[in-house]
Structure formats: structure tokens, C-alpha cells
Amino acid sequence: MSLGALARLAIIAGAVLLVIGVVLLLVEHFGLRRLPGDIVWERGPVRVYVPLGLMLLLSLILTLLLNLFFRR
């Protein structure tokens, strides 16, 4: 792998992390922390949180956006 390809990979990975960070900030800002369908299980000091509603919403939004941008 050449240095140019490695640099390109690092830039893409950084951009992906930046987008994920912005999405997480927006989710927090718009109050989408707990959606219907989220599973919270607590027993003693252990809390397990599975955000199914948020995962479905993000999957739908990303699917629509990627289909719009990469449609041939």
C-alpha cells in the first residue's frame, strides 16, 4: 500500500468519524435519546440499553441518503 493510499484512507476514516460525531450531537440536541422501541434493562448496578428505535431511524435515513447520492 503506497503512502498516498494510506493518507487517503486516513482522511476518509477521519471524515466518517466526524460525520458520526455530528450525528450523535444532533441526536442529543433534538432529544432523540429515548425513542419508542428502545430496550432498557436494569438489574442492580448493571444497566443495558439497546437503542432499537434510534438504530431503525438512522438506518432509514442513511439508506435514503445513500440511495440518493449513489444511485446510477
Explained architecture:
- With 72 residues, this protein is α+β, with helices and mostly antiparallel strands.
- The protein has 2 domains: 1-31; 34-72.
- The protein is 64% helix and 14% strand.
- It contains 2 helices and 2 strands, in the order H-E-E-H.
- It has helices at 3-29, 52-70; strands spanning 39-43, 46-50.
- Strands 1-2 form a two-stranded antiparallel sheet.
- The longest helix is centred in the N-terminal third of the chain and has 27 residues, at 3-29.
- It is extended, with a radius of gyration of 17 Å.
What does the main sheet amount to?
2 strands, antiparallel
Radius of gyration: 17 Å
User: So how many helices?
Assistant: 2
Strand order within the widest beta sheet? 1-2
- Domain unit count: 2
Strands, total number: 2
N-to-C SSE string, H for helix and E for strand? HEEH
What class do helices, strands and sheet pairing give?
Answer: alpha+beta
Oligomer: single chain
Question: What's the overall average pLDDT, rounded?
Answer: 86
Poorly predicted ranges: none
Secondary structure blueprint with pairings:
Blueprint: H1 3-29, E1 39-43, E2 46-50, H2 52-70
Antiparallel strand pairs: 1-2
Characteristic terms for this protein:
72 residues; alpha+beta; 2 domains; two-stranded antiparallel ribbon; 2 helices
